[in-house]
Design brief:
Radius of gyration: 23 Å
CATH class of the largest domain: Alpha Beta
Helix content: 25-40%
Number of helices: 7
Number of domains: 2
Structural class: alpha/beta
Order of helices and strands: HEHEHHEHEEHEHEEEEEEE
Shape: globular
CATH architecture of the largest domain: 4-Layer Sandwich
CATH superfamily of the largest domain: Metallo-dependent phosphatases
Number of strands: 13
Distance between the termini: 68 Å
Length: about 300
């Protein structure tokens, strides 16, 4: 047999063998991926989403609400953290149909529970008392706590007229008694932010030492109309999800992991050792992914 012919057959044989081996490897990888995905879902403690500054009744709010409903179809969840400014402009409860019940009808009909906090616009009418009594917001007071599986949530009132002495004493007591794997605090106002308002020095001084002492893993807020996720700051990740109905410009700071001026919401998959965070826009595109790990 000519040398060139032998070389051709040898190369062809190797090529065929490589294709078979590659196909087997890809099949094994696919099986491993599916197995890991299935295993990951089995180990999921909780999936929830958060959004803030929603209550406008505008097309932008409805667009975010539709994206939340679409995400729910493929990634079921039964909890929404609503981080304030639930009703613009002055917290008028008579607007509740236009700014809450209709936009989120698909989620509400599916049994998704909203847990709200009071924003600065919400307290302009009767200091937010009617919102506190509204069943759909599930508020147990101006500040309150609830637990889902191994995750404990703490809602705060960060408005300037809040009863800070009583609230902080309550927060320290609740955090110190909690044996939850994860501690999540949410409120309306930012602690760290790269937007219009910037860092809140008063809250940095008041809240961050408490978060550090009692191992708060995540703080969720609105007020700034953008999305921003920080790196871990002394063990706590700060996440702004204020693009629920409108947006404003945002920059970056040294501690910013990701920031974007997008109509959006945030989604969280909670496991025993980590929280996987996603920023999702109105086209259901995931524009940010991050992981919050348990402190050693």
């Amino acid at each position: 047999m000519p040398v060139k012919r032998r070389k051709f057959l040898l190369v062809a044989g190797f090529s065929t063998m490589s294709s078979v081996l590659l196909g087997r490897i890809e099949h094994q990888n696919a099986q491993t991926t599916n197995h890991n995905s299935s295993k990951s879902k089995q180990n999921l403690l909780l999936r929830f989403v958060s959004v803030a500054d929603t209550g406008t009744g505008t097309r932008s709010q409805y667009a975010v609400a539709r994206a939340m409903a679409k995400y729910h179809k493929h990634n079921p969840y039964d909890l929404v953290v609503l981080a304030g400014d639930n009703i613009y402009n002055n917290g008028e409860i008579e607007k509740i149909g236009a700014v809450f019940e209709r936009p989120y009808a698909a989620l509400l009909n599916a049994g998704v529970k909203f847990q709200a906090a009071l924003g600065n616009h919400d307290v302009r009418t009767l200091n937010g008392e009617l919102q506190l009594k509204y069943p759909g917001f599930n508020m147990q007071g101006r500040y309150y706590t609830f637990r889902r599986n191994h995750i404990q949530f703490f809602a705060l009132d960060t408005n300037t007229n809040a009863d800070w002495n009583s609230q902080l004493a309550w927060l320290k007591n609740q955090l110190s008694q909690s044996n939850a794997t994860w501690k999540v605090v949410f409120a309306h106002h930012p602690v760290y932010a790269s937007g219009v308002y910037g860092n809140n020095r008063a809250l940095i001084k008041t809240l961050t030492p408490i978060f550090q002492k009692y191992d708060v893993n995540l703080y969720i807020n609105g007020h700034e109309h953008h999305y921003e996720r920080t790196r871990s700051i002394n063990g706590t990740t700060y996440l702004i999800c204020g693009g629920g109905a409108g947006i404003r410009p945002v920059g970056r700071s040294s501690w910013t992991a990701y920031s974007a001026s997008k109509l959006s919401f945030a989604a969280y998959d909670v496991f025993a050792d980590r929280i996987e965070v996603k920023g999702i826009d109105i086209k259901n595109k995931i524009f940010d992914r991050g992981i919050i790990y348990k402190k050693a």
